[in-house]
Amino acid sequence: MFTNKKIFSIRIHGIGGQGVKSIANVIAKAALASGYHIQAFPEFGPERRGAPVKAYVRISTEPILIRSLVRNPDFIILMEEKALAQEEVAKDCRSKDIFLLVNTTKTPQEINSQYSLAKDHHKIYCQNAESWVKENNGKVHSSISIIGYFMRITEIIKLDEMKDVLRQEFLEKIGEEKMRITDKVLEETYAQI
After folding, report:
1. Considering the entire predicted model, what is its pTM?
2. What is the dihedral of CA 74, 167, 25, 9, to 10 degrees?
3. Which residue range forms the structural domain that includes residue 64?
């Protein structure tokens, strides 16, 4: 998917506490470990948990000289379905070239018909991230299944690279048991498509 693009750009939407900034951070670090040039940064106001948050990632085979927000991304990750009602997201999702990953219980067809997106259902992916949290008794963050699914769709980042980055970033914070569950969910969602 990425091989025909000089720079692959990602925009992630959610609210504080959903891991938006962390998703951007670990995708960028794993891409760097996989040999790419990267850029990642969040956008949020002074608000805290529960406030809207966006994060941006650029991945390239060459140095990245752009220093602006990501407009017209190649891939959008939505940590909650209601972000599709935002004008910026809705406008971008009408493009036939964009890939969309939504944290929802709905199907791509249901998402498309409800929000009038581009008609290519093969570029709309749905993942019920909360089901993984529930299945694992709250011992994994919902963002992990989104990351695994993103990795399988794009095939930019190697699974082992992501596992190493997650371990470096979170092992001390969450402990060995939750880290094993995180690895398991990442592997299972990566293999799901």
Report:
1. 0.92
2. -10
3. 7-190
